[in-house]
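Protocol step 4 of 5: obtain the predicted structure for the target chain.
Materials: sequence only (see below). No template structures provided, no constraints applied. The aim of this step is simply to have a reference model before the mutagenesis design in step 5. Sequence pasted as it appears in the construct record:
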Amino acid sequence: MDHPATQDWKRERLAKAQLALPPWLIFVPVDFERDDLGERLASAGFQQNSPAFFTWLGVVPYLTQEAIGSTLDYMASIQNSEVVFDYMEPPEAFSEEFAELVTERTKQLEKIDERWASHFEPAGIAAFLRSHGFCDIDDINFQEIKSRFGRAVKGSRTERLVFMWSTLNTSQAAKTGAHGSDKVLSPFQRN
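Step 4 output (structure tokens):
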């Protein structure tokens, strides 16, 4: 699922690269600011009663907090759903070098009628996510991303990656003691 224009661009790139698409791949165009995510996914054959893993990378910074919240509400409504997404910290956290890159990127985005619409403080993101139904949250900074996934990872020091899931299974409940615990669990530690 992706914004229709972005999805079209990606499909063009795949075609130009002559990459064969797997037969199970389904493209679902969604404007997160305007569309009902549940309706769009259902029309593409998505089964809401099955566990789901959402990879929501490169999307959140472009959305309003209202659109992020409604999308998270839908994702959390699916039992045993999991989500990974990235977000940017506020501009005050940017290094001078990164601030210059952001200024340039902002100009490029304006040319295509796009913008960055949201930033989050790491100290407040867990409460925001809990308010939308997620209970286990692992928010890692760029240095931790590189440590876990290797030095070839590209990004900026102000990017953060969040792994989260909405419901606890029996073994998780035993580890945390209760639903909605403040204890952070990594998806790499789950059984």
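Step 4 remarks: The beta strands are 53-56, 82-88, 136-141, 159-165. The helical segments are 4-16, 37-43, 65-76, 96-111, 122-130, 142-149, 170-176.
Proceed to step 5.
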